[in-house]
Design a protein that fits this description.
mainly beta; five-stranded antiparallel beta sheet; 45% strand; binds beta-D-mannopyranose
Length: 332
C-alpha cells in the first residue's frame, strides 16, 4: 500500500491501532521511548525471572506475540502472548509446545530471542535453538495456539535468524549471524535463501562490524520492512567496553532484490542504553530490538526491544524520518 502520510512507499497494511505516543517536546531523536517503559515487567508471569528480546505482530484486529521468558531456574524458553493494545500483554504461563513429525527436532535444550514474520498464509517463528549449541529454529502457527516446528535452518552455531516477509526472486530468504558456542566476540550478518524453508543455501555476506557502537558484532533485529527506498533493517551492534558488551541499535537500507547489498547504513546508533532499565538488570547495557509494527498509512513505527536482558521496552518513530536519518548519516 502507498502510504499517504509518508513520502516513502511502505509495503504493508494499514495498522490504525498501532500503539503510539507523539515525540516528546525534548529529547526525542529519530526514535523516542514510550514514556511508560518498560511495558513488560520481568515478573509478568509467575515463573519468570525476565521477559525480553521478544516479537509481536498484528493478529485478528488485535496483537499476538512470542516472548522470551527466562524462568526462575534460569532456563530460556519462548511463550505465546496476546494483547488488545500491543502495550498490555497476557503471556501464557507455559512455554510453547511445538508439534512436528521428527522427535529429534523436539530435542532442543533451550529457545530464545524469537522473531515472528507473517509470510504468505501463516506466522513463522524463528529463534535461537539449542541443538548441540545455538542454531536457528523455525516453526509456524496460524493461531498462536498450536505451533509446528520445521527443521533447523543451519548447522550450529548461529543466532539472530530473521526471515524476510516475502519470497525474493522466487525463494524464501533469511538473515542470520554465524557465531560460536558462547558470548561470541565476532559476528557478521549473512543472507541465505531456500526453495522450501528447509534447505538453505546461496549464502551471501551482508555486513560486518564497523566502528564505535557496532565494532564487535552486528545482528539483524525485527523482520525487515519493505519500502520504496529498500528493505529497512533495524539491527543491533555491540561495543566491547572495559565493563563488557554494550548493545545498541540502528538501521540500514538493503537492496530490494539483492538484499545482501547494503545501500545505506547509519554510522550513529538510534537507541543505546541510556535509561536506568536499559543500564541495570541481569545483563547491564543492552538494548536489543526484536520486532517492529508499522502502519503503512502513516509510516508510524513501534519497535519492541529487550532492555538489560530483563524487561521489554517500546520506542516510536516514523519510517520517513528513520530513512532520512540512515541516508544522511550513512557509512556503508
Ligand atoms: C546475546 C544474546 C541476547 C542477549 C545478549 C546480551 O548473545 O544472548 O539474547 O540479549 O547477548 O546478553
Amino acid at each position: 500500500m502507498q502510504s499517504s502520510g509518508s513520502k516513502t512507499t511502505v509495503v504493508g497494511g494499514a495498522l490504525p491501532n498501532i500503539p503510539w505516543e507523539d515525540r516528546p517536546a525534548k529529547g526525542g531523536g529519530a526514535l523516542w521511548r514510550y514514556s511508560h517503559n518498560p511495558i513488560i515487567p520481568r515478573n509478568a508471569i509467575p515463573t519468570s525471572n525476565s521477559i525480553f528480546n521478544s516479537a509481536v505482530v498484528p493478529y485478528n484486529g488485535a496483537f499476538a506475540g512470542v516472548f522470551r521468558c527466562d524462568n526462575q531456574a534460569r532456563e530460556m524458553n519462548i511463550h505465546g502472548g496476546r494483547s488488545r493494545d500491543a502495550i498490555h500483554w497476557e503471556i501464557a504461563p507455559e512455554p510453547i509446545q511445538f508439534q512436528g513429525p521428527d522427535p529429534e527436532m523436539a530435542r532442543c535444550v533451550y529457545r530464545y530471542d524469537p522473531r515472528v514474520c507473517w509470510l504468505e498464509d501463516r506466522y513463522y517463528v524463528t529463534w535461537c535453538n539449542g541443538y548441540h549449541g545455538p542454531t536457528i529454529g523455525i516453526g509456524y502457527t496460524f493461531d498462536f495456539e498450536i505451533f509446528h516446528f520445521l527443521e533447523n535452518a543451519f548447522l550450529p552455531y548461529n543466532r539472530n535468524g530473521v526471515l524476510f516477509p516475502r519470497k525474493i526472486n522466487g525463494k524464501y530468504a533469511m538473515l542470520s549471524r554465524p557465531s560460536d558456542t558462547g558470548h561470541t566476540p565476532f559476528g557478521d550478518v549473512f543472507y541465505s535463501e531456500s526453495p522450501d524453508l528447509v534447505h538453505w543455501g546461496k549464502h551471501r555476506f551482508v555486513m560486518g562490524p564497523k566502528g564505535g557502537w557496532q565494532s564487535t558484532k552486528v545482528g539483524a533485529g525485527p523482520t525487515p520492512i519493505e519500502t520504496g527506498a529498500g528493505w529497512l533493517l533495524f539491527y543491533h551492534g555491540v561495543l566491547t567496553s572495559c565493563n563488557g558488551f554494550v548493545y545498541s541499535f540502528s538501521a540500514a537500507l538493503l537492496d530490494l532484490e539483492q538484499p545482501w547489498k547494503v545501500l545505506y547504513r547509519a554510522k550513529p546508533y538510534l537507541i543505546a542504553p541510556w535509561e536506568p532499565y536499559e543500564c541495570v538488570g541481569d545483563v547491564p547495557n543492552v538494548t536489543f530490538p526484536g520486532a517492529a509494527l508499522c502502519d503503512a498509512a502513516t509510516g508510524r513505527l513501534a519497535i519492541y526491544y529487550g532492555c538489560a536482558d530483563t524487561v521489554t521496552g517500546l520506542v516510536f518513530g516514523y519510517v520517513d524520518e528513520v530513512i532520512d536519518f540512515v541516508r544522511s548519516n550513512s557509512e556503508v
